[in-house]
Amino acid sequence: MLRPQESPTRELKSLDGIWSFRTDPDGVGRAERWYAAPLAGARDMPVPASFNEVVPDAELFDYVGEVWYQTTTRVPRGWRGQRVVLRFGSATHAATVWVGDAEVVSHVGGYLPFEADVTEHVTAGEPVTVTVAVDNRLSWQTIPPGYVEETDAGPRQRYFHDFFNYAGLHRPVVLGCTPHLHVSDVTVTTGLDGSTGTVGYDVAVGGGTAEVGVELRDADGRTVASGAGAPGQLRIDDVHPWRPGEGYQYDLVITATGGDEQDVYVQKVGIRTVEVRGTQFLINGEPFYFRGFGMHEDHLVLGKGQDAVSMVHDFELLRWVGANSFRTSHYPYSEEVMDHADAHGWVVIDETPAVGLNLALNAGGLAGSGTFSEERIGEETQRAHEREIRELIARDKNRPSVVVWSIANEPESDTVEAERYFEPLFRVAREADPTRPVGFANVMLAPAGACRVTPLADLVMINRYYGWYAFPGELEVARRRLDEELARWAQDGKPIIVTEYGADTLAGLHALTPSLWTEEYQVDLVTMTHEAFDGCDAVVGEHLWNFADFQTAAGFMRADGNKKGAFTRDRRPKAVAHLLRRRWTGPPLA
Ligand code: GCB
Q1: Beta partners for residue 103, in sequence order
Q2: Hey, is 87 helix, strand or coil?
Q3: Separation in Å, CA 308 to CA 48, 282, 305, 566
Q4: Would you say the CB of residue 69 lies under 6 angstroms from ligand 1?
Q5: Is 409 in the pocket of ligand 1 (CB under 6 A)?
Q6: 366 to 274, 362, 371, 428: CA distances (angstroms)
Q7: CA dihedral defined by 316, 318, 323, 326, rounded to 10 degrees?
Q8: pLDDT tens digit string along 367-381?
Q9: Distance from the CA of 535 to the center of ligand 1, in angstroms?
Q10: CB-based contact 486:538 (threshold 8 Å)
């Protein structure tokens, strides 16, 4: 799905700001046609943001069900005769949208965009009301999964992943116009051969047939190659590649012309290659070592709301600490984050929202029961998972920053059922994008030899908590076990990225003797872990868990959330951040 943009033929109007908002605990809004009139009893709610913490109200914080958002805007009068599209960056986890009293689109999946052609429901120059019912419920059929339990105090959402179920309109909402004949999609693939670069492109057009022409312009606006026809291949001499740390991008200016209409869409292109060769991970043919974090879209009050200040600040902290990469744990991040990564040379492991597919973890009373079964995670969930993979790749396929698709985090992976569940999903990912390696983050419960899903992957990605969940306080034993496990994985002959390691740490808690939760212990554990990585050639990456402390569901394992951050939730460095900075800004790692 194309990212909306302004171009010579396209305009955008942001619908971000204060919307009317109300909850619908009795689930009557649809029957009562709340979209057909101003929302009664509504309060103000900012968009984009999670709704959970904006109001100090425990019921809203833990609310389960549909909430309603409504805004009125005026369609620019210059849009007469144009195709008008309404687009949401995301709605967590499901949404139905009305324009006036016409239902225009429904979408399931909380972290990917969707849009509706609303041309026939709007009039240029006239006001229009947009109403959205957003459902934050997770079920056995959703990705991520969960279930709603009826308790004496009302419904409670249960889920198996370790981050708070923030919900709402988390990302920008825009109204845009294009000509009726329009560029509807483009796929680019890039190659490098010495100083020559190639850009393959395939353009799709909607609303009629068109002649397609493309021009590739460098960052100074000079045309360096051009072509005609919807699919084609461009050759660029003296190419300026996209590199980690230097997000050089060209503009592919696409022009579609048909009848008396013309559309222009500009696709950014970073020319780079990605390859797994033996135990190496190569970007532009050179070995790449991942330094960075698993992260979360998580901020005080904003929850998972996209916010430019927080986003740029987080990237500046990543830069300060010497990171070169991150994983979008455990769901696709906003397109604003991905644009920034492309433009500044961040290397990204792009993850679907398939987290919590493992009843051996965080499953309370269900613990240990079979995860993959028709009553729980069965074919319908698998179809939802497949859709998430397809939609993620459709959104991010042209992004140079994305070098790996991670199709799940810590699923059950040591059973025949798991292998059966995942085998077709790897195929889906590879069909949708034959150019990037595909993997998933393996859980400690399925070590080398026992994991039946990692053999399906192009690389080994493991989350390991030696010294924390395993051998807490016993760093010597932890080190031996970690060495042994890394050596076993190395025998697979694939690169290993340790996608999580770390320790919960309360900023400001100190001790002279090894003591869990202290800043010293986090430093000691991370030091021990790095020594193990440095002793294993197949390890090509280290992503500490987590970049910053983050909110979780309530539980006795968590102190106001997960505290494994290198930074606190308000982005102050813990001692470990300085350790990472010394390691990551020192001489390059092997
Ligand atoms: C994991 C999960 C991550 C958790 C983390 C932890 O393995 O992938 O979502 O937050 O462990 O801190 O327990």
Answers
A1: 98
A2: strand
A3: 11, 32, 10, 21
A4: no
A5: yes
A6: 41, 9, 9, 30
A7: -120
A8: 767 899 998 999 999
A9: 25
A10: yes
Distances (CA, A) of 418 to 70, 140, 258: 42, 16, 49
194 has a pLDDT exceeding 70: yes
Query: Active-site residue numbers?
Result: 410, 500
**DSSP string spanning 450-505?**
T-SSGGGSSSEEEE--BTTTBSTT-HHHHHHHHHHHHHHHHTT-S-EEEEE----B
**What is the reported pTM?**
0.98
Q: Is the CB of 564 under 6 A from ligand 1?
A: yes
Q: What are phi and psi of 205, to 5 degrees?
A: -125, 140
> Is any atom of ligand 1 closer than 6 Å to the C-beta of 500?
yes
Q: How far is CA 175 from the centre of its chain?
A: 23
550 CA closest ligand 1 atom index: 10
φ, ψ (nearest 5 deg) of residue 385: -65, -45
pLDDT in tens, 304-346: 999 999 999 999 999 999 999 999 999 999 999 999 999 999 9
For the chain, give the number of residues. 590
Q: Ligand 1 pocket test: which of 499, 501, 545, 546 has the largest number of ligand atoms within 8 Å of its C-beta?
A: 545
Q: What is the DSSP letter of 19?
A: E
For residue 395, what is the enclosing H or E element?
A: helix 379-396
Q: What domains can you pick out in the chain, each with its CATH number?
A: 17-171 (2.60.120.260), 182-269 (2.60.40.10), 275-584 (3.20.20.80)
Instruction: Specify whether the CB–CB gap between 207 and 199 falls below 8 A.
Output: no
Task: Count other C-beta atoms under 10 Å from residue 405's C-beta.
Answer: 26
In the numeric block, which tokens belong to residue 287? 């070995």
DSSP class of residue 8? T
